[in-house]
């Protein structure tokens, strides 16, 4: 008779800890979170450490025997935390990155502990209903019609990809779904401004549309899509035998924060029978701020809207969102038949399946942190925080305009600002191409020095061919004083960079 191994599944094991062990682990973790939130303003934003040094501390063979949780928390506290960039710092202005909130972190913990799989209503009835409720709240924020619908996704790139897939299917139908893009007789065209996020181009590649079939439309002085140039491009492509099927508008571009003329683009889309998608991943929730709301007129007319609650709802990653004006128009692109996912329920709400509206089958419970954060803080508090971020960016622009050593390179429309340092000699007279290239190199070095110093953090952008120091205010902790400190930090970095070249 074959021997059997001892039963190691008893309560108290590493895989199935006791209630007391869970309390101990949770208590230690929560204490760290409380201290971290209380001290984050005093932390250096970015670590000064090499990949080799981190690997030397972290690398080890696959553990055969387990270790105590205290040891693991020590590694997290002493290695992972100081080796991380602190996106929650009030002067972290790099990219478009939110600080997270304590209540959302708790929600993520609870969602992981419950661990529902939101494939369909039958798999997670209450979590599914909560996702519907939270999507309804987001629709209200955007001013969408009650008949709109949507779902949470991993982020904006996946939301943009999914929207283009729905747009393509509406235009091409089942032939392309069955036989591939070769079954369509004419090249497809997507239109997006030169400021559009690269995920649109990536989606075109992955969907077989092709990068070359994304026509980039020029922008005006405010970096907004030129609608006249859009119409000209569409007419030109139709005359050449191509098929325009989708236009992508920005509601807060990633480089400058520009919001395209959404109502005008919606009218063009209707005129030509095209799907209109709005990439509102960064800017869409700024509609909660009264001073920015008029910028988003026309957004609710789009066929689809991509958003990132893990940006301006201040949530921890990951949490993207896609809204469909008419969910029924998107469903044929994703609905598939398979016996193991066959739905038996007959009541429509209970027969609902998220897999009919996007590419994912297994889905985590992202709605809980969105619901808990909005319900805990309230939309007024979130809108006030966004308004504060907009004010900080405008304050920075005013400081730059009033300075003798900085130059604004793009208008500030939302909370993104792009500027550069100018030495006194560069202020006077005209500058040659060689002078401009020297300024590019200087500002690039300033950015690196600034990041290494740890007090403030900026990323970079290219504006009209010139290197820009780029920042995005996306933190409820940030104040006007932080913007003043930022410029002082840049001045110190500039002095160091200039001294290094002497």
UniProtKB/TrEMBL annotation:
GO biological process: amino acid metabolic process; carboxylic acid metabolic process
Pfam families: Pyridoxal_deC
GO MF term list: aromatic-L-amino-acid decarboxylase activity; pyridoxal phosphate binding
Keywords: Decarboxylase, Lyase, Pyridoxal phosphate
Required cofactor(s): pyridoxal 5'-phosphate
Signal peptide residue numbers: none
Keyword Lyase: yes
PTM sites of type N6-(pyridoxal phosphate)lysine: 311
PANTHER family xrefs: GROUP II PYRIDOXAL-5-PHOSPHATE DECARBOXYLASE (PTHR11999), MIP05841P (PTHR11999:SF70)
Protein family per UniProt: Belongs to the group II decarboxylase family.
Protein's name according to its UniProt entry: Glutamate or tyrosine decarboxylase
Organism of provenance: Micromonospora viridifaciens
Species lineage: Bacteria, Bacillati, Actinomycetota, Actinomycetes, Micromonosporales
């Amino acid at each position: 008779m074959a021997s059997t191994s001892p039963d190691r599944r008893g309560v108290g094991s590493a895989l199935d800890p006791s209630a007391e062990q869970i309390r101990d682990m949770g208590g230690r973790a929560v204490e760290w979170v409380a201290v971290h939130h209380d001290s984050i303003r005093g932390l250096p934003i970015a670590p000064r450490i090499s990949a080799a040094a981190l690997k030397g501390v972290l690398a080890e063979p696959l553990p055969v025997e387990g270790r105590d949780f205290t040891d693991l928390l020590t590694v997290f506290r002493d290695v992972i935390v100081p080796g991380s960039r602190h996106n929650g710092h009030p002067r972290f202005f790099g990219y478009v990155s939110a600080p997270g909130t304590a209540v959302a972190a708790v929600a993520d913990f609870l969602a992981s502990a419950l661990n529902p799989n939101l494939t369909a209503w039958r798999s997670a009835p209450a979590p599914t209903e909560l996702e519907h409720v939270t999507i309804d709240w987001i629709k209200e924020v955007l001013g969408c019609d009650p008949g709109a619908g949507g779902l949470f996704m991993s982020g904006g790139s996946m939301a943009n990809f999914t929207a283009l897939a729905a747009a393509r299917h509406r235009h091409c139908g089942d032939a392309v779904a069955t036989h591939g893009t070769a079954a369509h007789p004419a090249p497809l065209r997507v239109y997006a401004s030169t400021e559009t996020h690269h995920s649109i181009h990536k989606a075109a590649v992955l969907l077989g549309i092709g990068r070359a079939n994304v026509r980039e439309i020029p922008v005006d002085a405010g970096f907004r899509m030129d609608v006249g140039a859009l119409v000209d491009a569409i007419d030109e492509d139709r005359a050449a035998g191509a098929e325009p099927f989708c236009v992508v508008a920005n509601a807060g571009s990633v480089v400058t924060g520009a919001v395209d003329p959404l109502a005008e683009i919606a009218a063009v889309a209707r005129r030509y029978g095209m799907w209109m998608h709005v990439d509102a991943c960064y800017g869409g929730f700024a509609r909660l701020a009264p001073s920015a709301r008029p910028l988003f007129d026309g957004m609710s007319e789009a066929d689809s809207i991509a958003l990132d609650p893990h940006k301006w709802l201040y949530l921890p990653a990951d949490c993207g969102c896609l809204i469909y004006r008419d969910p029924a128009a998107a469903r044929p692109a994703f609905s598939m038949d398979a016996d193991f996912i066959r739905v038996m329920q007959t009541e429509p709400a209970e027969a609902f399946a998220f897999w009919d509206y996007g590419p994912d089958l297994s889905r985590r419970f992202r709605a809980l942190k969105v619901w808990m954060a909005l319900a805990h803080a309230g939309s007024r508090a979130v809108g006030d925080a966004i308004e504060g971020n907009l004010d900080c960016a405008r304050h920075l622009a005013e400081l730059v305009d009033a300075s003798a050593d900085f130059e604004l390179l793009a208008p500030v429309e939302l909370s993104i600002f792009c500027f550069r340092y100018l030495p006194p000699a560069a202020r006077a007279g005209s500058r040659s191409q060689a002078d401009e290239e020297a300024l590019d190199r200087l500002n690039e070095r300033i950015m690196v020095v600034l990041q290494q110093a740890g007090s403030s953090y900026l990323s970079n952008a290219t504006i009209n061919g010139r290197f820009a120091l780029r920042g995005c205010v996306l933190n409820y902790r940030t104040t006007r004083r932080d913007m003043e400190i930022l410029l002082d930090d840049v001045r110190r970095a500039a002095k160091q960079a200039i001294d290094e070249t002497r």
